[in-house]
Amino acid sequence: MGDSGPVMDVDRHARGRALGNGAAAGARPIAALTLALSARLLLGAAAPPRQASVAYVIDGDTFRLASGERIRIAGIDAPETRPGQAKCRREIAAGRAATATARGLLQGRTVRLARLGRNYNRTVARVTLDGRDVAGELVRLGASRWWPRGQRKPDWCHG
């Protein structure tokens, strides 16, 4: 008969696991730690919306919480306010107006956040205020436009 390669003593391996010794025992704490961290991440991602206080509105779609965390409102785009980021003067003017609108709506208020992810050192979240969707309210007020994920950024210079 030919050599079929290395053969593992399955019984010895099973006994080692049952007794808590050998390589299987060394892997057990690592597996438990990995499982615990994975569960923590999954539970954190699925956490219910929480309340937070808006300390400062940065622009028409981004604000800072009293905790210091920066929040980007999901699903919308507001015009830029800085010349290096805006594509035209019209966008800068619209951005200043959008910032003022968002400031009037959010500054100093308590909002509910449903965190969705991170983008450019900001937390992306669905935001509600008094039970109303803030993104929808900013669109309704003309301060922002819907920006579905995967779509091109709205053009603030040409209509």
UniProtKB/TrEMBL annotation:
PROSITE patterns: TNASE_3
SUPFAM superfamilies noted in UniProt: Staphylococcal nuclease
InterPro entries: SNase_OB-fold_sf (IPR035437), Staphylococal_nuclease_OB-fold (IPR016071)
Domain TNase-like, residue spans: 48-145
Gene3D superfamilies: 2.40.50.90
Source organism of this protein record: Allosphingosinicella ginsenosidimutans
Organism placement in taxonomy: Bacteria, Pseudomonadati, Pseudomonadota, Alphaproteobacteria, Sphingomonadales
UniProt protein name: Thermonuclease family protein
